[in-house]
Automatic annotation (TrEMBL):
Signal peptide: none annotated. Residues 12-152 form the Nucleoside diphosphate kinase-like domain. It comes from Coemansia spiralis. Keywords: Kinase, Transferase. Its cofactor is Mg(2+). GO terms for biological process: CTP biosynthetic process; GTP biosynthetic process; UTP biosynthetic process. Belongs to the NDK family. ATP binds at residues 20, 68, 98, 104, 115, 125. This is Nucleoside diphosphate kinase. The active site is at 128 (pros-phosphohistidine intermediate). GO terms for molecular function: nucleoside diphosphate kinase activity.
């Protein structure tokens, strides 16, 4: 059985991708999902929620000493719009997910990336992606894990998307 956080380095690698409240408010959910879907990555977990303060604090625990931390947690949790949390699966999805999002500061994000195409400010950068296998395991476990929340499934086009020859 595949662990819920996947198997890094294989076609079953998994990452946690989120559309933040500004991305939801601005109607960018379908675009962000569509980019991963069209690339060939497989959606194995999806939910819409207003995260609790506890969840946001734990998700961003590494940043708890930063001056922007309180504002960041408020932005994520104040309920002015929900967050879409997703788990995507496929080859190199952790590193490629980060490439697809673009640089943390949208002013440094290239055209063709999500942030480079749709946003302007580091505090409203519309999306999140795990930055390493360790982060992906932590974040998938934090946002998902209820029974049946992650689905292992075979796509009919798997053989047309993933092969080494
Ligand atoms: N952030 C912010 N101000 C900053 C730096 C970061 O508000 O000066 C927020 C921003 O939403 C960013 C998040 O904190 O996406 C997490 O920061 P990190 O460095 O982990 O960037 P990411 O992994 O999201 O690219
Ligand atoms: Mg980060």
């Amino acid at each position: 059985a595949v662990p819920i956080h996947g198997v890094p380095g294989t076609a079953k690698e998994r990452t946690f991708i989120a559309v933040k409240p500004d991305g939801v408010q601005r109607g960018l959910v379908s675009d962000i999902i569509g980019r991963f879907e069209r690339r060939g990555y497989k959606l194995v977990g999806l939910k819409l929620l207003v995260p609790s303060k506890a969840l946001a604090n734990e998700h961003y625990a590494d940043l708890s000493k930063k001056p922007f931390f309180a504002g960041l947690v408020d932005y994520m949790t104040n309920g002015k719009a929900p967050v879409i949390g997703m788990v995507w699966e496929g080859p190199s999805v952790i590193s490629q997910g980060r490439v697809m999002l673009g640089a943390t500061d949208p002013k440094a994000a290239g055209p063709g990336t999500i942030r480079g195409d749709y946003c302007l400010s580091i505090g409203r950068n519309i999306c999140h992606g795990s930055d390493s296998a360790e982060s992906a395991e932590k974040e998938i476990g934090l946002w998902f894990g209820g029974k049946g929340e992650i689905v292992n499934w075979a796509a009919n086009n798997d053989e047309w998307v993933v092969s080494d020859n």
